[in-house]
Amino acid sequence: MNRKITVVMADDHKMLRQAISAVIAQHTGIEVLAEVGTTDDAIAACISHKPDVAVLDIDIPGVNTFEAARTIQARSSRTRIIFLSAFTLDRYIESALKAGALGYVTKSEAIDTVVRAIHAVAAGQCYFSPEVQSRIVIDSSGPSLRPDAISTRAASLTERETEVLRYLANGKSKKEIAAVMRISVKTVENHVSNLMTRLDIHDRVELTRFAIREGLVNL
Q1: What pLDDT score does 94 carry?
Q2: Among 9, 81, 111, 212, which residue's beta carbon has the most beta carbons within 10 A?
Q3: What is the mean pLDDT of each run of 10 residues along the chain (219 residues)?
Q4: What is the span of the domain harbouring residue 204?
Q5: What phi-psi label fits residue 63: left (phi over 0), alpha (psi between -120 and 50 degrees) or beta?
Q6: Does residue 218 lie within any of the structural domains?
Q7: pTM to 2 decimals?
Q8: 219 lies in a domain?
Q9: Whether residue 172 sits in one domain with residue 70
Q10: 101 lies in the same domain as 71
Q11: Cα first-last separation, the chain
Q12: Separation CA 167–CA 177 (nearest Å)
């Protein structure tokens, strides 16, 4: 008999997380090993359980979700990543792909879609919601954002700079950012300086407004 596909489910909306987990549990070929509400708990659960698939909401508390995905794959190489989000911003899609995700499902779709995505990704295939699929290309090197995707000032930022910007916009101090990202305060200051230069924004309040406009943080 074939082994069940094992899953860790991470979403900070408890009712949604439980609803998705309940639907997944109805499928005898899939087993939910853990459901958590933060990226830190998702990392811990994946390291502990070594699931086949981790379904991660993009906007949940804890370390940056894309960084969490990289950590999970580094500590549990068998685990494949599916991102779940209400947003289909180019930056989210690009960051998801760079983090090694094989799936990206929008919350506007039926919950059963997550089940289809889990089966596909567990088999080493890609699964993207139609709105996401239309903005990427898949070739021999894997999926990537279409070259004609809309470019913004935010697109010029490195992943690390974007991560720092998210934390700044969420009100974290440089010391707090350094602790979460496990880097020095001086490195955080360098990232902030680079952010301001690249974006031509020289005020933290304006940086926050920019991050909100770009959909990098939730209101």
Answers
A1: 85
A2: 9
A3: 86 91 87 95 97 95 91 95 88 88 93 94 94 82 70 73 90 92 92 88 86 72
A4: 153-213
A5: beta
A6: no
A7: 0.72
A8: no
A9: no
A10: yes
A11: 48
A12: 7
Same domain as 131, residue 37:
yes
Q: d(Cα 76, Cα 125) in Å, to the nearest integer?
A: 18
What pLDDT sits at residue 209?
83
Residue 25: what pLDDT?
85
Domain assignment of residue 104, yes or no: yes
Within 10 angstroms of residue 108's Cβ, the number of other Cβ atoms is 11
Q: With CA atoms as reference, report the closest residue to 68 among 161, 181, 168, 156.
A: 181
Contact 199, 207 (CB under 8 A): yes
- Cβ–Cβ < 8 Å for 71, 42: no
Q: Nearest CA to 137 among 125, 148, 152, 124? A: 148
Assign residue 130 the CATH number of its domain.
3.40.50.2300
Single-letter code of the amino acid located at 160: R
pLDDT of residue 1: 41
